[in-house]
Amino acid sequence: MNSVVVTKFGGSSLADASQFSKVKEIVFADSNRRYVVPSAPGKRNAKDTKITDLLYLCHAHVMTGISLDDVFKHVYERYTGIVNDLGLDFDIQKHLGIVKKDLEAGASKEYAASRGEYLNGLILAKYLGYEFVDAKNVIVFNNDGTLNSKETDELLRNTLRNVEKAVIPGFYGADKEGNIITFSRGGSDVTGALIAASIEADLYENWTDVSGFLMADPRIVENPKAISRITYKELRELSYMGASVLHEEAIFPVRRMGIPINIKNTNRPEDEGTYIVQDTDEKECKTITGIAGKKDFTVISIEKAMMNSELGFCRKVLSVLEMNNVSFENMPSGIDTVCVVISDSELKNKTDKIVEEIRRACDPDSVVVHPNMALIATVGKGMAKRKGVATRIFSALTNANVNIRMIDQGSSEMNILVGIENDDFERTIRAIYGAFN
Ligand code: ASP
């Protein structure tokens, strides 16, 4: 069957010549893989440095009036090494020379960073025999640095309509004046998603160095199971709570078009990986899909007799947060109590000021601050309409001797959130994982 697949490879998948040859094998194994999006060469080992970081460093050197020669040498060696080891007849030195000159002449930070993908894209296009489409001609940014989705969509569609097979570097585009603009770090995922959406691809493959999403963080749970199918909504819940494989903004363009994403492992292409899909079959889905959590929250707990009958009480509390430019995470409430859960990175050192202002605005009986809290989300579409899920979580936590400070279940019945002490974080994740596996 003829379908169109957009295939993005992350930095570790293109870190050296041997990774390039795996990529070629993958691309050539399926003629539907017509549009390939590369990242810049990533780390070859734990101590290595990503090309993007070296390029940022080159720019910083120039800005501080230091020669970039020493740093650029590493960039030069990486790319010439890849081309030589692949035995490619390609004058990468010429392109490296242009980039170096531009950097020395004071090119922007975003231009500097984008060259990682640009140079890798040139090499990959040559190696695959695909056309090279420069992202600066198809990904359009507004003058304020935000993406111009409409123009990008049109340009991509019109350009790729006439191109059978192409390599389009990830991570950057340009504004109307031609200045290079980048997405935030990891942004090649976004480029791939935009391309897939614009041409209404059948599949967006995202090749990396793990075989998809795992049910829990492998640094906490030993050998967690892989997730074979997950809905966009579940993924959003888990990513928000700290699980990460894909750039957050990469979900929206493909989700809108109902295009599935398949996270695959370049080093183990035979593994099925994780499919991120619009919906999963209720009968097929497991009770829980994954567990993720974040540390360092503060809970401000406010108590006042007859709070339930006082109109506008919560609004007053939230106005104090708004006036202090602080957004909150969660707001569980009881008859005479309401709590606001706030990330410490939001709160900074404003706690005392906020407490004082809540006292003044709401005249409560008490305001108590609980610092050092963690939030853990157990996510799964399969928990809706299934009985006993919460019981399993809470019994597991009782057995693990974890004190639950807060509980919240989203109305979508897809997420049970528990608030615990930071110190109980790892123990809680292991206990919940154990209860369902
Ligand atoms: N090379 C860029 C980075 O390191 C973008 C990407 O890899 O997606 O963040």
TrEMBL record:
Q: Which PROSITE patterns match?
A: ACT, ASPARTOKINASE
Q: Which top class of enzyme applies to this chain?
A: transferase
Which region is the signal sequence? none
Q: Would the keyword Metal-binding turn up in this protein's UniProt record? A: no
Protein name, per record: Aspartokinase
Metabolic or biological pathway: Amino-acid biosynthesis; L-lysine biosynthesis via DAP pathway; (S)-tetrahydrodipicolinate from L-aspartate: step 1/4; Amino-acid biosynthesis; L-methionine biosynthesis via de novo pathway; L-homoserine from L-aspartate: step 1/3; Amino-acid biosynthesis; L-threonine biosynthesis; L-threonine from L-aspartate: step 1/5
CDD domains this protein is in? ACT_AKiii-YclM-BS_1 (cd04911), ACT_AKiii-YclM-BS_2 (cd04916)
Keywords carried by this UniProt record: Amino-acid biosynthesis, ATP-binding, Diaminopimelate biosynthesis, Kinase, Lysine biosynthesis, Nucleotide-binding, Transferase
Which positions are tagged coiled coil? none
Its annotated function is as follows: Catalyzes the phosphorylation of the beta-carboxyl group of aspartic acid with ATP to yield 4-phospho-L-aspartate, which is involved in the branched biosynthetic pathway leading to the biosynthesis of amino acids threonine, isoleucine and methionine.
Q: What is its EC number?
A: 2.7.2.4
What one GO molecular function would you report for this record? aspartate kinase activity
Query: Catalysed reaction per UniProt?
Result: L-aspartate + ATP = 4-phospho-L-aspartate + ADP
